Amino acid sequence: MNVHQILSGAGPYDAVTTQALMFRDLFKGWGWGGRDVAAEIDPRIGDRIAPLRSLDARDGDILLVHYSAYAPKLRAVLDLPQRKLLISHNITPARWFWDHDPQAGVVCALGRKQLPQFAAAADVAAGVSLYNAREFGSDTVIPILFDPSGLGAPRAQDRAGWSASPTILFVGRLAPHKRQDAVIRAFELYRRRHAPGARLVLVGAPINWAYDAAMRELAEATSPGNVTIESGLTREQLAARWRSADAFLCLSEHEGFCIPLLEAFHFGVPVIARAIGGVPEVAGDAALLLEDADDESVAAELLALVAADGELRAALRERGAARVAAYAPRRTAQTLRAAIESLPAADLRTGA
Amino acid sequence: MKPEDALAAARAAAAQRDDTPPTGMSIQPTERVSIEQLMEWANIEPDPDLMRSTRRLGAPITWAKRQLVHVMRQYLRELQSQQTRFNLNVLIRVAELEDRVARLEERVEGERAAKP
To answer: pLDDT tens string for chain A (352 positions)?
Structure first.
C-alpha cells in the first residue's frame, strides 16, 4: 500500500511536519510506501519532504492530508480520484490574532472557513481530539503521536518538598490565545503570597517580534527579574526545563490537543490548566482544571496547594502516568492504521 | 487532599484574599470589530521598527532590510495610498449599507406596528 502525506507547509520545527515524519517511520515499519509533499517547504527540511507538484499518486493509493492552516494550493488535491484521509490539527479562532498578528488572523479565519470543504471531500475526516473533530461534525479521532522516549527519562520520584524557590513552567507558543499574560499575573500573585523566591519559565516561540517584546515588558513590569522567556530550545534543553519544573501552569484559552500536558505527565510535573478545548479530554482526571469563572487568584492558590500537599502531588503524578499510557505511541499507531484501513476499497468507491 | 477537592479549597483560599491583583496588558479576543476599529485598520501604516532580523547577529540584516524599504519608499507609499483608498471606500460603503438596513428595519417595524 502507498500512503502519500500532504502538508500545507513543512519546516524543521513545525509540529505537523514532525508528526508527518513520525507517521512515515510507522508506514515504513508496516511495509507501506508513498512520499510526503508540501505546498511550501523550508529549505532546512532537506529532501525528507518533496514539493507538492512531485506528488505522483496511482490508483489505489491513499492521500493523507494534514490540515493545519489555510492552504489554497491544496485545493487541487481534493479533485484527485484517490481515497483521502484528512487529519485536522486544529486552527485557532482568528479573534485571538486581529490585534497582534493580522496576517495570522487572516490565515486562521480562511483556514477555519475552508476546513468543512476539505472534510467533506475526504473519505474519512479526523481530528486530533474529539473536541477538534466535532468542529466539523466528525467523531473520528487520531491523537497526536506522542513519543516521550526522545525527551529522556522522567524524574525518579517526587521531590521531598518544594524548595523556597519553586519553578513554575509553561510551554507553548508565545501567542495571544495561550494567555501568557494571565500566567504571569497568576504566578506573581502566588509569588507574593506564598513563595517570594519562585521563578516562572515561559518556553515557546513568539508569533512575532512585537508580541515577544510586549510580553517581556509585561513580565518585567509585573514580576521584575522572576520571569524567563525562552524559545528555540533543543529537545535536551526542553527536557531539562521539565526536570527542573515544580508545576505546569496553563491558562490557555484555546487548545486543540496540548502536547505539553502529556510532557508534564511524563515528567511527573503537577498540572494546573484551564478546562478549555481539548484540555479536559487529554488531561482526564490527572490535572487540576480551572473553570471559566476562576481567575488568576484561584490559579495562584492551586499552585500553593500543590506546593504544600505531597499527597495531592502523588495522586496527580500517578494519574498523569495513566494518561501517558493512554496516549502510548503503540495505541496511537493502531488508531492511525485502523483509520487508514477503514477507508473504502478503491474499487468499491469508484463503483467498479 | 484529593485532586477533586483542590479547586474548591483554592476558591475558598482566594476568596479570603484582599490583595490587589497585578495590572498591565491583558489579552482579550476581538469578538466583533467595530466600524471605527475597521477604519483605523483600513488606514494601513506599517511600523518600520517591525522590519528587523530575528537571527543571532542579525543587526546587519536589519540594517539592509531598512535600507531596502528606504530605497523603495516612493513605490511603497504609492502602494500604501492605493490600498488605503480602496479599504476606506469599501468601509464607507459598508457603513452606509448598515445605516440603510437599520433604517429599512425600523420602517418595517413601524409599518407592522401600525397595521391593525
So the answer is: 899 999 988 887 788 999 999 999 999 999 999 999 999 888 888 888 999 999 999 989 999 999 988 888 888 998 999 999 999 998 999 999 988 998 888 889 999 988 999 999 999 999 999 999 999 999 999 999 999 888 888 776 656 567 778 999 999 999 999 999 999 999 999 999 999 999 999 999 999 888 999 999 999 999 999 999 999 898 899 999 999 999 999 999 999 999 999 999 999 999 999 999 999 999 999 999 999 999 999 999 999 999 999 999 999 999 999 999 999 999 999 999 999 999 877 555 554 4
| Spatial contact of A270 and A118, defined as CB atoms under 8 Å apart | no
Per DSSP, helices labelled H in chain A are 15-29, 75-78, 102-121, 130-134, 180-193, 209-222, 235-243, 259-266, 279-283, 296-308, 310-326, 329-341, 346-349
SS3 label, residue B43? coil
CA dihedral A148, A150, A151, A157 (to 10 degrees): 60
Q: Please answer yes or no on whether B2 and A312 come within 8 Å at the CB atom.
A: yes
The DSSP secondary structure of A67-90, one letter per residue, reads E-S--GGGHHHHTSSSEEEEEE--
CA-based nearest residue to A293, from B47, B11, B85: B11
- Surface of A (282-311) touching B: CB under 8 A: 285-286, 288-291, 294-302, 304-306, 309, 311
Q: Do A98 and B33 touch (CB under 8 A)?
A: yes
> Taking Cα atoms as reference points, which of A40, A33, A46 lies closest to residue A7?
A40
> Which phi-psi region, left, alpha or beta, contains residue A204 (left: φ > 0; alpha: ψ -120 to 50)?
left
Bridge-based pairing state of the strands A167-171 and A199-203: parallel
Residues of chain A with CATH 3.40.50.2000: 3-146+329-349, 148-326
Whole-model pTM over 0.80: yes
Amino acid letter, A212: D
Superfamily in which the A3-146+329-349 domain is placed by CATH: Glycogen Phosphorylase B; (3.40.50.2000)
Q: Which of A102, A189, A218 sits opposite B24 (nearest CB)?
A: A218
Task: Quote the cell numbers at residue A178.
Answer: 495561550
Distance between CA A118 and CA A128 in Å, rounded?
Answer: 16
Return the domain boundaries, chain B. Answer: 55-116
Assign B34 to helix, strand or coil.
coil
Interface touch B54/A209, C-beta < 8 Å: yes
Q: Does B2 touch chain A (CB under 8 A)?
A: yes
**Which CATH superfamily includes the segment(s) A148-326?**
Glycogen Phosphorylase B; (3.40.50.2000)
